[in-house]
Write a sequence for this structure.
C-alpha cells in the first residue's frame, strides 16, 4: 500500500484543517521544511494541496511545488485547478500528477479534455459528505454520489482516485474503511484513502481490504503514526 504524507498549504503555510473548515486551522510551519522531513523519513510521494486555491478557485502554489519537487520526491497535487491552463501550470511546475475534484463535477468537458491530454497524470478527487460529492473546498454539495463520479471518471480512462470522507478529515477518528473498499469495488479505480487515519491499526485495516494507498495528514504531524515505521511496514 502506497503512503502519501500530506502538505496542505494555506496562505503560504503548512496547515491542517478540521473537517475542511478554514476557521479551524493548525499551523505546522513552512511547506518546504515539512517536505524535507517527510522525504528524510523515506517518503517517495507527497500529496500537496493548495487550500487557498480550493477555496478561491485560483492556483497559488506552483512555486512551492517547484521547490518540493526539486528535493527529489514525486508530488501529487490538487486544489484550485479549474482550467486547463492551471492544470498545465501545476504539472509544468513539477507535479507528477494532479487531482481534479470540483472541476470534474462542474465542468465535465474540461475534465474529459484533461484526461485525454494527460492520461494517468490525472487523478479524480472524490470528496464525499453523506455519500454525495462535495465541491469548492467542500463548501457545496453536488447531487452526484461518489460511486457515480468514480464510474464516470473510470469510463473516461482515469485509473486512480483520492477518496476523502469529509466528516472524518483532520479528526483522527479512523478512516471510512468500508466506504473506501466499496468505492474500489464499484468503480474499478485504484483508491487512495484520505481522512481520519490516525493509527497503524487504521492502515492495517485499509491494507487488509486491498486499498491502493493512504494519505497521512494530522497523524504524522501529531505523531500518532511514525511515518518512517509506517513506510517500513507498508512500503511506498
Amino acid at each position: 500500500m502506497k503512503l502519501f504524507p500530506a502538505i496542505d498549504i494555506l496562505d503560504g503555510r503548512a496547515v491542517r484543517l478540521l473537517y475542511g473548515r478554514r476557521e479551524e486551522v493548525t499551523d505546522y510551519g513552512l511547506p518546504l521544511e515539512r517536505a524535507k522531513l517527510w522525504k528524510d523519513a523515506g517518503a517517495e510521494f507527497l500529496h500537496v494541496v493548495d487550500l487557498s486555491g480550493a477555496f478561491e478557485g485560483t492556483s497559488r502554489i506552483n512555486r512551492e511545488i517547484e521547490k518540493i519537487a526539486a528535493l527529489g520526491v514525486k508530488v501529487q497535487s490538487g486544489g484550485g485547478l479549474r482550467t486547463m491552463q492551471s492544470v498545465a501550470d501545476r504539472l509544468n511546475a513539477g507535479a507528477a500528477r494532479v487531482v481534479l475534484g470540483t472541476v470534474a463535477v462542474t465542468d465535465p468537458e474540461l475534465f474529459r479534455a484533461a484526461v485525454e491530454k494527460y492520461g494517468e497524470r490525472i487523478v479524480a478527487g472524490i470528496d464525499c459528505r453523506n455519500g454525495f460529492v462535495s465541491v469548492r473546498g467542500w463548501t457545496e454539495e453536488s447531487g452526484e454520489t461518489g460511486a457515480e463520479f468514480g464510474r464516470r471518471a473510470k469510463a473516461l480512462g482515469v485509473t486512480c482516485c483520492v477518496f476523502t470522507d469529509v466528516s472524518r478529515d483532520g479528526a483522527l477518528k479512523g478512516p471510512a474503511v468500508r466506504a473506501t473498499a466499496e468505492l474500489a469495488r464499484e468503480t474499478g479505480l485504484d483508491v487512495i484513502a484520505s481522512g481520519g487515519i490516525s493509527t497503524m491499526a487504521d492502515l492495517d485495516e485499509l491494507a487488509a481490504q486491498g486499498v491502493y494507498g493512504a494519505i497521512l495528514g494530522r497523524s504524522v504531524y501529531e505523531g500518532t503514526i511514525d511515518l518512517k515505521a509506517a513506510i517500513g511496514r507498508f512500503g511506498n
In short: The radius of gyration is 16 Å. The chain has eleven helices and twelve strands. The longest strand covers residues 2-10. The domain at 2-234 is CATH 3.20.20.70 (TIM Barrel).
